Amino acid sequence: MWSANVKTGSELSISSLSASQLASEFGTPAFIMDESDFRSRALTWNRALNNAFGANAGNVYYAAKAFICVEVARWINEIGIGIDVCTGGELAVALKGGIDPKKIEVHGNNKSVTEIDKAVAAGVGIIVIDSLYEIARVAEASTRHGIVQRVLLRLTPGIEAHTHESIATAHEDVKFGFSIASGAAWNAIQEVRKNSSLELRGFHAHIGSQILETESFGVSAERLIALLATYRDEYSEQLPELDLGGGYGIAYLPGDSELDPEIVMNGLATLVADQCIAYKLDIPKISIEPGRSIVGPTMFTLYEVGTTKDVKLENGLNRRYISVDGGMSDNLRPALYDAKYTAILANRASTATKISSRIVGKHCETGDIVIREIDLESDIAPGDLLATPATGAYGRSMATNYNHVPRPPVIAVKDGKARVILRRESEADLMGLDI
Questions:
Q1: Cα–Cα distance between 370 and 181 in angstroms, integer?
Q2: Is 276 a known active-site residue?
Q3: List of domains in the chain
Q4: Which of 301, 331, 322 lies closest to 375 in space, CA to CA?
Q5: pLDDT of 244-294, one tens digit each?
Q6: Rounded to whole angstroms, what are the CA distances from 244 to 26, 173, 216?
Q7: Measuring CA to CA, which residue among 198, 264, 201, 291 is closest to residue 237?
Q8: Which one is catalytic: 69, 86, 276, 364?
């Protein structure tokens, strides 16, 4: 839930820097990021993949959609893993951060002609094709640039993953990929093979996000391997790669579990080996796309309390409303997915009785709720600091300027030093696009 270098005693601190120090120097709201923890988590997933699959290990592609900026892209380059991008903007950030184009995988269900052309021109390692239109578009761009582009086909394996409907991505009625069951996947295979400027390397599937059980990953792998066998039987050759996506869940609340990289990868390796033996296939190169499970726990959001208000409920009970200086503009997930978070009083210790509270933001919206129900100290007052853990994935990434609120900065902390890696927006930034 909290990153490795956070301590939550009398006052929250990260790598010996207190919440009060950070708020004083950088202001609030702010995303505070544990750089060492980010690096450690990325290396742990990479090590788990390589230990489990050995010579058959492909790439760990960090899912940029969780959170990316140029400095984080530099870390990824230094760590030596790849990156998965799904827009031209994410591709530009990855390249600016120095990531080797061959370690870039390009995703997205509606890549524009311009985005495809930029990706091909940059020499990206893999483009994941999501529609019949994209087959033609990628083939045309590859021909124009005089290369043979390596591609994967994104498939829909028909999995009902145990997660929120809005972040489940592998059942049939969804915008992503080619359905295996309907035959759309096989049609796409045939279309790719018609283009000499494309090299079909294999298949890709991503079954959803924040998944906390491993069974769905195994079922998805089984269905992709079955299609590899069908392809081998039809064309007398085996495709060499599978990308099994990401979606590995993390802990958001006290008592929550999270998926262990070694356990997940070892389980997948056993299943893949068994299925390949059953179908008489060589084990393909296996790649994965962790995003949330790397960056999610490495960051927390630091807020300042602006007001408190007691409200009497219809059942006769009271609720304390605690308003902070951020809200749905820096954490949209509670409104989108009914996502649950926790928070603590971060700037001091308190022995006051805890009471039923609701943490809300400053936006002109009833649904601007950070945490709907939490017991917090009754003496929390304006000027106090609250910290919400595990906001690294999709907090800053989904941040908006609703009500013309500037987006918060990201502050990287390492070895007792803090620095801005993504600055706070200003009012000038908000008006910078006005003509």
A1: 40
A2: no
A3: 6-29+296-430 (2.40.37.10), 35-290 (3.20.20.10)
A4: 322
A5: 999 999 999 999 999 999 999 999 999 999 999 999 999 999 999 999 999
A6: 39, 20, 11
A7: 201
A8: 364
- What's phi and psi for 377, nearest 5 deg? -60, 135
Q: Is 431 exposed, middle or buried (0-12, 13-18, 19+ CB in 10 A)?
A: exposed
Please determine, for residue 164, whether its predicted confidence score (pLDDT) is greater than 50: no
Do 98 and 73 form a contact (C-beta atoms < 8 A)? Answer: yes
**β-strand partners of 62:** 83
Residue 385 is encoded by which pair of tokens?
Answer: 């600091």
pLDDT of residue 235: 97
Q: pTM here?
A: 0.95
Q: How many CA atoms lie within 13 A of 165 on its CB side?
A: 1
CA–CA dist 353, 299 (Å, integer): 28
Between the alpha carbon of residue 326 and those of residues 169, 376, 410, 420, the distances in Å are: 30, 18, 14, 18
174, pLDDT greater than 60: yes
- Hey, what are 123's tokens? 């020499």
CB 257 within 8 A of CB 247: no
Tokens of 32: 């505070």
Task: Tell how far CA 289 is from the center of its chain.
Answer: 9
